[in-house]
What does this fold into?
Amino acid sequence: MSGLVSLDTARKAPAIALTGLTKTYAGGVRALDDVSLTVAHGTFLAVMGPSGSGKSTLMHCAAGLDAPTEGSVRIDGHEIAGMNEARRTELRRERVGFVFQAYNLIPSLSVEDNITLPLRLAGRRPDREWLHTLVARVGLADRLRHRPAELSGGQQQRAAVVRALVTRPAVVFADEPTGALDLRSAHQVLDLLRDLVDDLGQTVVMVTHDPAAAARAHQALVMADGRVVESLTSPTAPQLADRLVALGER
Ligand code: ADP
Ligand code: MG
It folds into this structure.
């Protein structure tokens, strides 16, 4: 069946492949300096580093939100260099999910309408079974008709995680997803992200400055001055804290 063949072919490419990525902003700031890395499907990758080290720029380029100055970005095998804004937007809608620190749910929409919004934007129908699986998994089955303001911060962020997953993206990017949460809610969201990777094979790239959060990932990159200066497998929080302190003291 040709459908299966093409899916198989697409899955041979890593979720993300960056080669020689450089981003220079107007004014000459080199936010990324020749970064190359691949993110295999089904991995949980944390990106750490001091403020200004290029984490957000890396995420924006890898997610197709911004175009690099030089180098190649492949999302699920699709090269975005040279794509215009409209094609990049289309690729993002199809293959990328986002979770932000501030949840970014639309206040006037119900939880369910927030969650299914990415599908409607992509002109796709909700897969009810998938939706219910996700919603039950995050404990929001009885909250679908509520407005975001009627949920706790942790519940809102779990709704945002479901929203990011509803299109079955190749990769979910999370930018400081626990930054606004109390410790207990932060743990729940990190447990959720980790389970999605371990149980569903979801790929997650998370930017965080919290070593304890990054320690939940399979792998952590440490950035400094627009470069990846370290890559740690099964990182521990003390190990990561130590690396960050050392970078701060240079
Ligand atoms: P981080 O997320 O690690 O704090 P960023 O990727 O936001 O780092 O920024 C990396 C560098 O690029 C910093 O020096 C920052 O000031 C600069 N920078 C980021 N965005 C812009 C922009 N839109 N225009 C100019 N410089 C920028
Ligand atoms: Mg940033």
